[in-house]
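Example record used in the benchmark description.
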Amino acid sequence: MYGVVILIVYKMLTSLMRLAMFVFAKWDVSGVEYIPETQGYVLVSNHVHIMDPPLLGASSPGRILRPMAKQELFSLPLVGWIFSAYGAYSVKRNGRDLRALRESLRLISAGEAILLFIEGTRSRGGPLQIGHGGAALIALKSGRPVIPVSIQGSNVKFPHVFFKWIVRRRPHIVVRFGPPVDLQGIEANSTGVREATDRIMFAIADLLPVDLRGPYDRSVG
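Model output (structure tokens):
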């Protein structure tokens, strides 16, 4: 199912991330019981830091996550090779990318787990931004479980992490997986995609503290 290079690089990076979390941070992970053990599924997350993919990989024992990443990253020297070797696949951000859609559905139907950042860009630790419809479209067309996950506290820079470790003030990084989002009965048209996007975003928001929910705070309105 996986190429040898992808398997080696993925395991190496996630193992290094797991070690870094144990040493340099207070790392809390909850809700892993919601992760399907065998079938393909869609993991949908907020996005805080460029290192979120290996962080989520380290937090998801037993499953390899195939992240979707913006196409520009793959053209960068070394960075592009790392992303490809890690198992990521590209998407164009300026409009609907049918190739990325087909690749996502192929991976899911083959029993793999894909990772989508529904905001389309990093929030850098701020409140949730408006969700994009691409993740919902993939989720609806795949018909497979959609697992929401939230990340808090990963927006730290390595020098700061090292300094805080020295003074015993490690950053608190929280990863919370939630139960599958109910998308039953929603059609994969423009109206359905908007509804599914909102359901997914609210599910992610429910896993975050109130001050990080942005426009998806259920207590407002």
